[in-house]
Amino acid sequence: DGTWRFDNLYPGDYYLTVALPDGYRFARTLDTAVRFSLITSDGTVVNREYGQSNPFALAMGEKKTGQDIGMGLMGKLGDFAWLDLDGDGMQDMGEPGVPGIVIRLYQYGTLAAETTTDAYGRYLFDELYPGAYTVEVTMPPELKTTKQQNDYPLVCSVLPENSETVVRAEGIRVPSGSRNLNCDLGFVPRNPGTLPDAMNNLPVRDWTPYVDVTPTR
Fold first, then answer.
1. Is the Cβ–Cβ distance between 51 and 45 less than 8 Å?
2. Which residue of 68, 111, 150, 183 has the fewest CB atoms within a 10 Å radius of its CB?
3. Could you give the CA distance from residue 29 to residue 20 in angstroms, rounded to a whole number?
4. Which residues, other chains included, contact 136 with Cβ-Cβ below 8 Å and sequence gap of 6+?
């Protein structure tokens, strides 16, 4: 259940070392505002698999509790920006991806990561601490966000409908040890028929999964 304890210790100064399980990372100092962690990822002696606490004193007869060690599995966030040709707020077959969309992630008011959609409108943030993020999107001046609807979240845009070129979505969750690939971004032209230069001559890709199997009889 994650509990730990050392008994029958002499009084004096101690420090704790911890080896993490595969895929885990120590909590950040920012995370300890909610709950204390004896070791943090931005502490004095920490790497991806190992951490060491600062020295602490143990008095005679003292029962020192609450010495928690915060850690978690990293998560992923993505994955598609598309042009909503019929403006219904949902991804439909044949609607193209939008390249060159700048996406920034903020957590605790601090920039956590930044990327840009590729030639197919795809993007992916890897190695993210789990929790809630603000997604900030900067789009070309020829585009604006599409209608937001929540009936079919797997094919909808997380962005609110807005005419600004910088739009934010709040409370986007990154799961621990898993991925959220439903952070999709939908756009429509501000003026019909006028698209960003990056959308001219878009590449075509076959997204059918490739399975390397030799047929047998």
1. yes
2. 150
3. 17
4. 103, 104, 105, 106, 166, 167, 168
**Mean pLDDT of all residues in 131-157:** 92
In whole angstroms, what is the distance from residue 56 CA to residue 38 CA? 10
User: What does the alpha-carbon distance between residue 154 and residue 181 come to, in Å, rounded to a whole number?
Assistant: 9
Whole-number Cα distances in Å, 30 to 38, 110, 128, 206: 13, 10, 14, 42
Distance between CA atoms of 67 and 45, rounded to whole angstroms?
Answer: 17
The residue among 29, 25, 19 whose CA lies nearest residue 52 is: 19
Q: Residue 74's Cα: distance from chain center in Å?
A: 9
Q: Which two tokens stand for residue 31?
A: 């995370």
Q: DSSP secondary-structure letter at 72?
A: E
Q: What are the residues facing 81 on neighbouring strands? A: 185
Q: Cα separation of 70 and 176, whole Å? A: 13
pTM for the structure as a whole: 0.82
Q: Kindly report, residue by residue over 78-98, the tens digit of the pLDDT.
A: 999 999 999 999 999 989 999
Distance between CA atoms of residues 78 and 172, nearest Å: 11
169: left (phi over 0), alpha (psi -120 to 50) or beta: beta
**Distance between CA 48 and CA 28 in Å, rounded?**
12
Distant-in-sequence, close-in-space partners of 7: CB < 8 Å, separation ≥ 6: none
